[in-house]
Amino acid sequence: MPHFCPAYPTPRRHRASGLLMFLSARHSWLDALYERSYRMQMGEVRLPGLDLYMVNDPALVRRVMVEQAEDFPKSELLGQALAPLLGQSIFTTSGEQWRRQRAMMDPAFAQARLQVAFPVMAAATEAMLARLERLPEGTEHDIEVEMTHVTADIIFRTIFSVPMEGEDARRVFDAFARYQALVPRLVLPSIFGLRWLVWPWDAWRSRRAAREIRGLLETLIRPRFEARRAGGAHPHTDILAAFLDARDAQGIAFDFDELVDQVAMLFLAGHETSASALTWASHLLARTPDIQQRVHDEVRTRLGGRPPACSDMKDLPLTRNVFRETLRLFPPVGFMARQARRGCPMRGKQVEAGATVVVSPWLIHRQRDGWSNPDAFDPDRHARDDDAPRAGYLPFGMGPRVCLGAAFALQEATLILAQLVRHWRLEPAEAPEPRPVGRLTIRSAQGVRLRLHRRPPTRGGDA
Questions:
Q1: pTM of this prediction exceeds 0.70
Q2: Where would a tag sit more exposed on the chain, N or C end, judged by fewer CB atoms within 10 A?
Q3: Which DSSP state fits 49?
Q4: Residue 282: helix, strand or coil by DSSP?
Q5: What phi and psi, each to the nearest 5 degrees, are found at residue 140?
Q6: pLDDT tens, residue by residue, 266-320
Q7: Domains plus CATH for the chain?
């Protein structure tokens, strides 16, 4: 049986002119790619605003991300666009400031250890199932909304020890959707040397959406920040408590704005990327009923009629590989921009100081010479040693700035997918196949609508 190949923007045959590239990327940077982008080892684009180098060669990727990471700090372009939401968090900072923040935050992630976090994940997943249970049988539902809700709920419970209720979830979803759609309009004019094209209206709307999200976080952080400064005892042992206790080498704690910055970053990174990937995983399973049935059988065999336990997650290899393959086809962060600190040669080209070097998981994961049938959804490839090139798979980045939550995200996704397919059969809705757009993360332009059918209970009372 041939593998399902999900839709994605058809690349142009030839590289577009600067103007056409700008107009295409304004909607989605995926639309600016052309056929050779998926084969080249290194590409160069000279724009009025900057020189940009796209690096796909695994050896160069490792050089930029790992071996000489200090010489390729994070590009300021995206940081400027994210500053209204994330401030000076570890996502946007570099150098000594980033090292100080990272050292202060590392101990906090003990609260995100898999065994500690699993009950939180399980409770939020049960809440998701309860919400879905209220839907009529066979109803058409935008699964993107649900995946955003459950992942935001999980990270909320992990940071604050409280669930994220429906109205708050909807507010954050709407605000972040607006914010994400505006980012290309704010970043691209700078890249193309057209800063005057940034409309004040877009900048204002971006700041307003960021304020909505940060405002929700601040209402939860402020009382505990003030209580901690007054010497009060912690009522919880969560990530926020660990952030409040964190001190740098000089014994200095985060001030309130720094604390909000780090929590906003963790909230964004902890739910948006997982929500994106889980939405696409649901779509892929709906389009491949044979694989969906295999996942259901795996979960039913492992769990029977009992609730899932943390130890079960390692014994659901197909479910886990569905998520891994989704991350290959639809990596939430489709590109990572670095800035050359000094001039250096790369594959016969002289990369000047200040040039932007882009590592794109989207392109690397679909390299025509790196993967067999690269556009196909094939979870089993991750069980084959010969078809998962280590240097060509980096959904969580690599090197010093590798995502701290990779194991957390994998466990979370395995649990959510296992419980979703255990209780529901997913079918595509009668609508055009969703097509990805590249903005901050890779999302569907119009959501992902599925039909949900209840599965009959098995012996033991579960599905």
A1: yes
A2: N
A3: S
A4: helix
A5: -90, 130
A6: 888 888 899 999 999 999 999 999 999 999 999 999 999 899 999 999 999 999 9
A7: 18-454 (1.10.630.10)
Cα–Cα nearest to 406, from 242, 263, 274, 267: 274
Q: H or E stretch including 102?
A: helix 95-105
Reading phi first (left if > 0) and then psi (alpha if -120 to 50, else beta), residue 254 is in beta
Residues 6 or more apart from 95 whose CB is under 8 A from it?
73
What is the rounded distance in angstroms from the CA atom of residue 233 to the CA atom of residue 231?
A: 7
d(CA 329, CA 362): 7
353-382 CB burial, b ≥16 within 10 A, e <16: eebbbbbbbbbbbbbeebbeebeebbbebb
Residue 264 near residue 83, CB atoms below 8 Å: no
What tokens does 33 get?
């790619």
HSE-CB of 323 using CA atoms within 13 angstroms: 26
CB 206 within 8 A of CB 183: yes
Please, where are the H alpha helices in 351-443? 361-364, 406-423
Dump pLDDT digits (tens) for 325-363: 999 999 999 888 899 999 999 998 999 998 889 999 999
Structure token digits, residue 96:
């000594």
C-alpha–C-alpha distance, residues 170 and 148, integer Å: 9
Burial class from Cβ neighbours inside 10 Å (0-12, 13-18, 19+) for residue 307 reads: exposed
- From residue 233, alpha-carbon distances to 225, 226, 336 in Å are 11, 11, 40
User: From residue 2, how far is each of 5, 38, 394 by CA, in Å?
Assistant: 9, 22, 26
What is the separation of C-alpha 395 from the centre of its chain, rounded to a whole number of angstroms? 9
